[in-house]
Amino acid sequence: MKGFLRADGRKGIRNVVLVTYLVECAHHVARAIVNKGDNDNVQLIGFPGCYPNEYSLKIMEGLCTHPNVAGVLIVSLGCEGFNREQLANTIEESGRSVETLVIQKSGGTKTSIESGLERVDELLVAANKFETVPMELNELVVGTICGGSDGTSGIGANPAVGHCFDRLIEKDAICMFEETGELIGCEQIMAERAITPELGEEIMRSVAKAEQYYTHMGYGSFAPGNAEGGLSTQEEKSMGAYAKSGSSKIHGLIKPGDIPTQGGLYLMDVVPDGDPMFGFPNIVDSAEIVEMIASGCHIILFTTGRGSVVGSAISPVIKVCANPETYENMSGDMDINAGKVISGDATVQEVGNEIYDLVIEVAEGNPSKSEELGHQEFVLTYKKFEGVGPSCLPTIR
Amino acid sequence: MMKRNFVLLNEADNVFVCCKQLLVGEIASVEGIDIAMSADITVGHKIARKGILKGEKIIKYGVSIGSAIKDITLGEHVHMHNMKSDYISSHTRQSKVREE
Known about the structure:
The complex is a heterodimer.
Chain A: E1 2-5, E2 11-12, E3 16-21, H1 27-37, E4 42-46, H2 54-64, E5 69-76, H3 84-93, E6 97-102, H4 109-127, E7 132-134, E8 141-146, H5 157-170, E9 174-178, H6 187-191, H7 197-217, H8 224-228, H9 234-242, E10 250-254, E11 264-268, H10 285-294, E12 299-304, E13 317-321, H11 324-330, E14 336-337, H12 339-342, H13 348-363, H14 369-372
Parallel strand pairs in A: 3-4, 3-5, 5-6, 8-9, 8-12, 9-11, 10-11, 12-13, 13-14
Antiparallel strand pairs in A: 1-2, 1-7
Helix pairs in contact in A: 1-4, 2-10, 5-13
Chain B: E1 6-7, E2 15-18, E3 27-30, E4 33-36, E5 46-48, E6 57-60, E7 63-68, E8 77-78, E9 83-84
Antiparallel strand pairs in B: 1-2, 2-5, 3-4, 5-8, 6-7, 7-9
């Protein structure tokens, strides 16, 4: 395995140039720059709102200084609330090239697109200067999410990802799982896996917060397709989702954009703190993927039963399909057929080993299916968080 | 390998998970007894492994995933029409499931 060495010592498995718009008003110009450049390594991300928000700034900083990212073109309209100076400084301090294009100072749409294209070309030249060096599994960060779950997800795909996680953690990789709202009902068994009792209490609190938040919103983290696929309740979905975490001890509780530094398993608390504000914790799977990437994930393992097709900007998404019928129907989108567990043709461990091998292949540069198909979904919205307390990241191992 | 109809995830479970689509009226062996399916059962759905009384917990993966809201017979489809969450209500595209 080889990685692109960044100034902070972290290594990337891709070498992407980002074009990021800081308000919806700058979206068209940013998209036109990416589309006209027509290069899979130049990717579009952005934030739609005009009001400033600490969370979205932190996530954007995490993404723009992600190890898979080599340089960034910031596209601003000029009058929006996003702190573009701070973002540019953070990127520059990380040893990456950064260019800021302010549409109101660049003569409007047409000239901004032209200028943006030139700057992206310069960023691509600078990106090629990053040295590639050997990279070990203990430098890899892998996240997991489930989307479009059904009654098969918790039987084949999720436990297989759990087995892959156990093997990665044995090699001292960082692994993370998330969505405390989809862990409602698992809080007790999860807390027992915490490396300290205090961390266990924090985990219990985070799930209680999620239950309260979702109850306030009036909906659990449960989609109609979940029910059509045989899942009857939130806690049934949760038990299946929980299997993705494997059987390792839980080393810490992080919030979106927090970057773990020690190998082990981490739970990400994605539910905002304080009174419910800005709506649903995560409006869609892609928002969770973005948060895990902001926390350093090089690769996302995405399990699905109904059949999700999404990928992501910045980090490759590997699709693990739990339902044999869905796999047959959508095999062009699926990297791994975990439906073999349901049909009785493979064990959970065998599929888990297949996922493990594929993680290494994708880390070595082979594209995942969604990556090859050009999926680069991206969602970032408003949220509010407090920092994690000291018991969330115990130092004892 | 022969295609199984159902899988038992944990010895403590009172439901099986379907691995192969079965149509309403189709006869399948459940715990050694031939039972006509009460509904179309698609992959991932659950059927009762034993009789379950109203108010009893539905056990899957060895843990409770909710409670029966009516008596359920051996082999019957177990889903939102006869069980509910003990935490937060589920919803379909048409409506939210009413808590009883």
